[in-house]
Amino acid sequence: MIKSWEKMINKNRILKLFLDLVKIDSPSLKEKNVSKYLCALMEERGYEIKQDSAGDACGGNTGNVYVRIPATGDGEPIGFSAHMDCVYPCCGVVPVIKDGIVYSSGDTVLGGDDKAGLATMIEAVQHLKEENIPHPDIYLMFSICEESGMHGAKNMDLSLFPVKEVVVLDSGGAVSTIVIEAPSKAGINITFIGKSAHAGIAPESGISAIQIAAEAVSHMKLMRIDKKTTANLGRIEGGGATNIVTDKVMLSAEVRSSNDQTLQDLIDHMKQCCAEAATKFGGDYNFEYEISYPALHVDKNSPLLARAEQSCKNIGLEPKRVSTGGGSDSNILYGKGYSALTLGIGMSKVHTLEEFIEIKSLTNCAELVADMMKS
Ligand SMILES: [Zn+2]
């Protein structure tokens, strides 16, 4: 039996759009050519397009793009978002199709993250139009700089995205995966301060910053803390010649948790380890941290979650709720007060040269998104 949706989803058109998009270079901060392509396409289709100045705020060459699809039916306005930037190496992508799967030629990422998200929402809109399916006001956001710290979403112009609910198309996992929890992340920079002295003649008058750092780190709870919490040290550097007692060591770290209290407790614990180590050796330390983005929690009773799950069922897929260890624009949108969730769009092995996506995932995802868009 041919599902009615299958007749509607234009496989060739979505594939062409997807391939066109992955072939346009768009590393973070340099999304202008993708933005130009998408604006031209949506303009040609008669939609109202706006851009904000988020690019100016983060040093990018273009801003976030917002497209309004005017209502043809009832319902509250709904937003959809995907990001235009890709992680390196992402320039000169040559897509290769084998057995219904799109890969890169092997020396770049594919950039399905997140061009699959862009292609599916644009195709979904086109379907609704062609099939005269009523829908409320739909707003699309094509964001910049997600990969390098969600700077597009952080600097977005809220007045250009007047919706309460946003579906972010930017997760791995099969189509029908719904991300309902994503952790907050804090970046930490620590400086351990000792006192330099000649290591051979007068080590007694020196304080080794390396010893302070080692003492502190040896007491830190790290790596997998609990199901929702992780901590990792990224880089340690300091010191010089062996005949000098090292007076300064720098250490960078991150902690993630989908529980805000656990996150704060862990940061406090790490700071305490530094304080105790500095005291033990008579040195000092400086501990700075910044919460990069808030945690995402989708309420179990959220109407948007119910809608996503119903739409999965409508197209014959069983919805699956998941928690993830990574953040996305959803976290930022949620932090700004939107009801947001992220959908799995079928992209696999993202951020690697083996990245791929099945063409079937593109059409399934467009089906799902179109179903969520309708009145
Ligand atoms: Zn992404």
What does this structure look like?
- The protein has 375 residues and is of the alpha+beta class.
- The protein has two domains: 258 residues, Zn peptidases (Aminopeptidase, 3-Layer(aba) Sandwich); 105 residues, Alpha-Beta Plaits (2-Layer Sandwich).
- 33% of the residues lie in helices and 27% in strands.
- It is built from eleven helices and 17 strands.
- Helix 5 packs across helix 11, helix 7 packs antiparallel against helix 8 and helix 9 crosses helix 11.
- The longest helix has 22 residues.
- It is elongated, with a radius of gyration of 24 Å.
- The site of zinc ion has 5 residues, from helix 5.
Which sheet architecture does the biggest sheet show?
9 strands, mixed
Mean pLDDT: 95
The SSE order reads HHHEHEEEEHEHEEEHEEEHEEHEHEEH
The top-level CATH class of the largest domain is Alpha Beta
Rg from C-alpha positions? 24 Å
List the helices and strands and how they pair.
Blueprint: H1 4-8, H2 11-22, H3 32-44, E1 48-51, H4 54-58, E2 65-69, E3 78-83, E4 96-98, E5 101-103, H5 112-130, E6 138-143, H6 151-154, E7 165-172, E8 177-182, E9 184-193, H7 209-219, E10 223-226, E11 229-238, E12 248-257, H8 260-281, E13 284-293, E14 296-297, H9 303-314, E15 320-323, H10 329-335, E16 339-347, E17 356-358, H11 359-373
Parallel strand pairs: 3-6, 3-7, 7-16, 8-15
Antiparallel strand pairs: 1-2, 2-6, 4-5, 5-17, 8-14, 8-16, 9-12, 9-13, 10-11, 11-12
Helix pairs in contact: 2-5, 5-11, 7-8, 9-11
The protein binds zinc ion (ZN).
